[in-house]
Amino acid sequence: MSTEREKMAAGEWYSCMDAELDMLRRHARRAVHQHNTMPPDERGAIGPLLRALFASVGEGVFIEAPFHCAYGLNVKLGRNVYLNAGCTILDSAKVTIGDGAMLGPTVQIYCAEHHLDPVPRAEGIEIAKPVMIGRDVWIGGGAIILAGITIGAGSVVTRDVPQGATVVGNPARLIMRKDAGEIHF
């Protein structure tokens, strides 16, 4: 039988109220607290506990305070990534941010989806899907990126993206739309 952490990593339904996952979140909170409360000249570009927590951190990464992450161990940051103040990464699945990506203030990345049925949702049952942000992507302030989203390298979105749509290119163009369970290309 798999542990809740193994189920989470495998993209299966798991209980977020698991003791091991709670311990990992407490560990992440300590690293986040250190990063957010250290004087900037002592902290540098990223707090030492936060740097050690992440799966990988490329050269030239800079994370403004305040910052928040759920676990940290699922976060991979490429070279010269910039996260502006107030960014939140709820990394119950892998979050990969490519070289040169810039996230504006209060950008939020959410990997978990809670169960739609209220009974398992009340029991902390959720599923995690990875988020991938490509090279040289700029995400404007206040954007929310939901579970399972990939944003291609160099993407520039200049118009509204309809619900259920997939956009690619520079500038981004619609390549697929999902309406009422049907997929249109």
Number of helices: 5
Largest sheet: 5 strands, parallel
- Average pLDDT figure: 90
Round the Cα radius of gyration to an integer and report it: 17 Å
Q: State the order of secondary-structure elements, H for helix, E for strand.
A: HEHHHEEEEEEEEEEHEEEEEEEE
CATH class of the largest domain: Mainly Beta
Helix amount, in percent?
10-25%
Number of strands: 19
What's the CATH architecture name of the largest domain?
3 Solenoid
What is the CATH topology classification name of the largest domain? UDP N-Acetylglucosamine Acyltransferase, domain 1
What order do the strands of the largest sheet run in, or round the barrel if closed? Answer: 2-5-8-13-16
Based on the structure, what is the oligomeric state of the protein chains? single chain
Label the structural class: alpha/beta
Question: Which regions contain 5 or more consecutive residues with pLDDT less than 50?
Answer: none
